[in-house]
Design brief:
By secondary structure, this protein is an alpha+beta fold. The protein has two domains: 124 residues, 3-Layer(aba) Sandwich (Aminopeptidase), CATH 3.40.630; 140 residues, Gcn5-related N-acetyltransferase (GNAT) (Aminopeptidase). It has a twelve-stranded mixed beta sheet with strand order 1-2-3-4-5-12-6-11-10-9-8-7, with helices on both faces. Helix 1 packs across helix 2 and helix 5 packs antiparallel against helix 6. 34% of the residues are buried.
Length: 295
């Protein structure tokens, strides 16, 4: 194993991180280089005070760089650059030790398809998939949907949906590694931030899925960015295993394309293998896989 060390940089070159986020995350969302850069810069500004940048040294020679951010009790690798991906296991050991020293409960990393450094970093039995970011290009040949019809949600339906959504999202986060207390806190915070005006919040659309006039599920789509995003899709328990989940998603993709979106993104939690199989079958591509390890 190489004799590597980590050396903090006193003046992190945040422009490197901005460039990375433009390419890996924001360009596909924004479909415009200027908007993508603005989004990346805004994101970095929000967490820059919690970021550590560490050079990976072999003797005195820099052979890589790690960007690490504090996220509550977690430490997340935002970016990893290595001259030799075979150094990744040794770097992971060093980063784990540092995270433990700082009192972190878990170490996470985003793995990009075809990136040998992050793939090797995550290649450890203790690493478990927490979530997967996926994307569907909204092309001209989207399949039609003849069964599920989308109807805008009214206030009464929204009130019932909101109470259940906060609880179910917290449960999903807890199943993916967070403590139940932290998961519920994050769920409440995120919903309050995303939906300050509830059903009337701009750029958020809420639907009830109908089959022959009967409600079978719900769908929440955000259109804040040129790439629309499925925040939540759910089929009522009494109507599951009838293909209505796929119907809701097909109808949502058609709606998003009709309203100007070039792609539709979503996040699926790692434990939800059934949903992941559905999205694979619908043609979604994996953009980034988030894995985590208890420390």
């Amino acid at each position: 194993m190489p004799d590597l060390t980590l050396q903090p940089l006193p003046h992190p070159p945040f422009d490197e991180l901005v460039e990375h986020l433009v390419v890996r995350r924001h360009l596909a969302e924004q479909a415009d280089p200027d908007r993508a850069r603005a989004a990346a810069e805004a994101g970095v500004e929000r967490f820059r005070e919690r970021v550590q940048v560490l050079d990976v040294l072999d003797a005195a020679r820099a052979v890589g760089r790690v960007w690490l951010v504090e996220q509550g009790d977690d430490r997340a690798v935002l970016r990893l650059v290595l001259d030799d991906p075979h150094d990744a296991p040794a770097v992971r050991t060093l980063v784990e030790a540092l995270a433990r020293e700082q009192g972190a409960r878990r170490l996470t990393v985003g793995v990009y398809p075809g990136d040998p450094a992050t793939e090797a970093f995550a290649d450890d039995p203790g690493m478990q998939t927490a979530a997967v970011q996926m994307r569907l290009p909204l092309t001209d040949d989207l399949p039609p949907e003849h069964v599920v019809v989308l109807q805008p949600m009214d206030q009464a339906a929204y009130a019932v949906w909101e109470a259940d959504e906060i609880e179910s999202y917290a449960e999903a986060r807890a199943r993916s590694g967070e403590t139940p207390e932290r998961a519920l806190e994050v769920s409440r915070e995120q919903h309050a931030e995303l939906l300050p005006d509830g059903l009337a919040t701009e750029h958020h659309e809420f639907f009830v899925g109908l089959v022959d006039g009967e409600p079978v599920g719900t769908l929440w789509i955000g259109t804040e960015r040129p790439m629309a995003f499925v925040y939540d899709v759910a089929v009522d328990e009494a109507h599951r295993r009838r293909g209505y989940g796929g119907g809701l998603m097909r109808a949502g993709a058609l709606w998003a394309r009709e309203h100007g979106s070039h792609a539709l993104g979503l996040n699926v939690f790692g434990y939800n293998t059934g949903a992941r199989a559905l999205y694979d079958a619908l043609g979604y591509e994996t953009v980034e896989t988030f894995v985590g390890k208890e420390l």
